[in-house]
Amino acid sequence: MEGMSVENKHKIVVAVDESEESMHALSWCLSNLISHNSTATLVLLYVKPPPAMYPSFDVAVHMFSTDVITAVEKYGTDLVNSVMQRAEAVYRNFNKVNVERVIGSGEAKDVICNTVEKLKPDTLVMGSHGYGFLRKALLGSVSEHCAKRVKCPVVIVKHPHDK
Amino acid sequence: MEGMSVENKHKIVVAVDESEESMHALSWCLSNLISHNSTATLVLLYVKPPPAMYPSFDVAVHMFSTDVITAVEKYGTDLVNSVMQRAEAVYRNFNKVNVERVIGSGEAKDVICNTVEKLKPDTLVMGSHGYGFLRKALLGSVSEHCAKRVKCPVVIVKHPHDK
């Protein structure tokens, strides 16, 4: 896992993904938990989906093609950059935000819980569902699973337009 | 429901009950969401269990005794006072806390969700389980239910000693 050099100080993990909801969760966190605490560290956690979950590649045809593997890896990197850029657009308006980035890979609910167990943040903030390609299949289950399993306070934020 | 005259301003609902966990949730709220926001209103929501859930009364023997009904009502009032006093001991150390109290009656998960729907707070804070006599029977389900149903951000706080 990249970027795990976060020190043991007051910190808040925000799980971000491609969803608008996770950006709303980040915004809620900045407004409610970070803005008054200049010493807090905001840890942005993005979990790359496993390669099998990536769409748009015909892995049955090109299973062992180096080009396809490279393309899949690039696609994953592009996803990370895209999400982190969107996150930056949210937090750049807040002064004195110490941001660390952690990139995981695998099943979101497991990676999030394991990361929280390792980093021991003061709070975990996440959207109520989201999580990219798993969204439809596992609606709501990522946040539910994490809320049950992690020991720190968990904030579950819904998109304000959700019914 | 008593105490529903809360105005439409920035407010945070904390669901409190007899559990240590809910007092820890209140403390987390005060430290993380209220301390920097002197204009926020802290709404303490306590849900009285339905009379059928009260222990220590042999309702089979004294089903229609006025004395028992009075005693049950007094027991409910004592519970409210006890929880609110414990809550006050937590929040009295924080300056400038605007506190409102809402007392509901019925099934905790429904009353909490209905209260949130009515008051439209900015955030709901609650322990991960708790809820007095229902605790063992419905472990975890109150916060899970509320996290799914309410539209505002929900903070689920566990007791730090929970494994």
The dominant shape of chain A is globular
Please give the domain count of chain A. Answer: 1
The CATH topology of chain A comes to: Rossmann fold
The largest beta-sheet of chain A arranges its strands as 3-2-1-4-5
- Main pleated-sheet profile of chain A: 5 strands, parallel
Number of beta-strand segments of chain A: 5
Helix content of chain A: 25-40%
The overall pLDDT average of chain A reads: 80
Order of helices and strands of chain A, N to C?
EHEHEHEHE
The largest contact between protein chains, plus residue counts on each side, is: A-B, 25 and 25 residues
Oligomer: homodimer
Any guess at the CATH architecture of chain A? 3-Layer(aba) Sandwich
Structural class of chain A: alpha/beta
Per CATH, the class of chain A reads: Alpha Beta
> Percent of residues of chain A in beta strands?
15-25%
Q: Write down the Rg of chain A.
A: 16 Å
Protein name (chains A, B): Universal stress protein A-like protein isoform X2
Domain UspA (chains A, B): 10-158
Pfam families (chains A, B): Usp
